[in-house]
Specification:
The chain has about 325 residues and is an alpha/beta fold. It contains eleven helices and 15 strands.
C-alpha cells in the first residue's frame, strides 16, 4: 500500500514522501478500512517534527482520523461488515491506503456526508466532546469561550456547543476569521489582534467554560474571563506551556483548571467515548447541526502542501487528504 513517510524520521514538510509498505491485517477485534480520506491535524505536525511520538502499539505513520469502507473484519467483530462506510479515530496510520483500527473506535458515516466531510470529524468531535462536554461539563444556557475558533477544533466546538443550546464567544485573529466564526454560529466573535481582548470578553459576559488551545499567553485573560464555578480546559499550548496563575483567584472563583490529550487514552476509554458520541453527538451530525467546513483537500501525494497550509494558519476549518 502507499503511505506517507518522513525522511530521516522527522523534519520539515519537505521531508514528507510517498512510499510503500505491506498492507496491514485486521487482528481480533479490529477492522481494516480502505481509506478514502484522512484528516490532517496539528498533532501530525508535531509528530513530523519529532515532538509527538505515537503511543506504544500504534502505527508510526501519521494520521489520527480516516473515512472509507470496511475492507477486512477481524475475529470477534460483530457490528461491521465489508463495504460498510465508516469514519474512525486512530492512534496513527491514517496517511495510507489502508488503516487498521479497533472496531469500537469506528462510527457509521451518515448518508448525507461524503468521505471528505466524514474524515474531518473523528479527531475533532472526540476532542471537543471529551473536553468541553465531559471535563468542561458545558450545559444548555451556559457560555463557551473558544480560542482559535476557526481551527478544526474551534469550528467543531462552536457547532457542538450551539447544538447543545449553549452560547459561544469565539476569538480568532483578523477580520476575515472573525466574520467566519460568526457565520459558523458564534454568538460573539472577537478579533484577538484588535483592541483589548480581555475587556471585550468581559463586556460579552464572561465564560462558564473555556476551551484553550493558546496556552501561556492567554492565562491571565482566561482567569479573568471565568465566571464563578467556571471550567478552564487546556488542550494545546501554541504560545507556550509555562504560565503563572494566581491560585488564590482559582480558589475564590471556585474554578476548575484541567486539561487532557486524546491519543494516549486507553482503547477501552476511546471505545466509551465513541459510544457516547454516537448516542449524543451523531444525531447532530446526521441532522446537519454539526458539519465542520473543509478548507481544502489534497491528494495523498501532496501531503507536503497540506502540512504547509496547516502550518500557515490561515485556514478556516479542516484540511483533508484524499486517498
Amino acid at each position: 500500500m502507499r503511505v506517507i513517510e518522513i525522511d530521516g524520521g522527522s523534519g520539515p514538510a519537505e521531508a514528507l514522501r510517498l512510499s510503500e509498505r505491506p498492507d496491514p491485517q485486521a487482528g481480533p477485534g479490529e477492522i481494516r478500512i480502505r481509506v478514502r480520506a484522512a484528516g490532517v491535524n496539528r498533532p501530525d505536525l508535531l509528530q513530523r517534527n519529532g515532538g509527538y511520538p505515537p503511543p506504544p502499539g500504534a502505527s508510526d505513520i501519521m494520521g489520527l482520523e480516516v473515512a472509507g469502507e470496511v475492507d477486512q473484519v477481524g475475529h470477534e467483530v460483530t457490528r461491521w461488515r465489508a463495504g460498510d462506510r465508516v469514519c474512525a479515530l486512530l492512534g496513527g496510520g491514517g496517511y495510507a491506503d489502508y488503516a487498521v483500527v479497533d472496531a469500537r473506535h469506528a462510527l457509521p458515516i451518515p448518508d448525507a456526508l461524503d468521505v471528505v466531510q466524514a474524515a474531518a470529524l473523528p479527531e475533532t468531535v472526540f476532542t471537543v466532546y471529551a473536553n468541553v462536554f465531559e471535563a468542561g461539563a458545558l450545559k444548555a444556557g451556559e457560555t463557551l469561550l473558544v480560542h482559535g475558533a476557526t481551527s478544526g477544533i474551534g469550528v467543531t466546538a462552536i457547532q457542538m456547543a450551539r447544538a447543545a443550546g449553549a452560547r459561544v464567544i469565539a476569538t480568532s485573529r483578523g477580520a476575515a476569521k472573525t466574520a467566519a466564526a460568526l457565520d459558523l454560529g458564534a454568538d460573539v466573535s472577537l478579533d484577538a489582534s484588535a483592541g483589548d481582548l480581555e475587556s471585550a470578553i468581559r463586556d460579552a459576559g464572561g465564560a462558564d467554560v473555556i476551551l484553550d488551545m493558546v496556552g501561556a499567553a492567554y492565562a491571565e485573560v482566561n482567569l479573568n474571563a471565568l465566571k464563578a464555578g467556571g471550567r478552564w480546559v487546556v488542550i494545546a499550548t501554541l504560545s507556550g506551556a509555562l504560565a503563572q496563575v494566581d491560585l488564590m483567584r482559582i480558589m475564590m472563583k471556585q474554578a476548575t483548571l484541567t486539561g487532557s490529550t486524546l491519543r494516549r487514552r486507553p482503547a477501552d476509554e476511546k471505545a466509551r467515548l465513541a459510544a457516547a458520541i454516537e448516542a449524543k453527538v451523531w444525531p447532530w451530525v446526521v441532522s446537519g447541526l454539526v458539519r465542520p467546513p473543509v478548507e481544502a483537500a489534497f491528494p495523498l501525494a501532496e501531503t507536503k502542501l497540506a502540512h504547509l497550509r496547516l502550518e500557515a494558519g490561515e485556514h478556516v476549518g479542516k484540511i483533508v487528504l484524499t486517498v
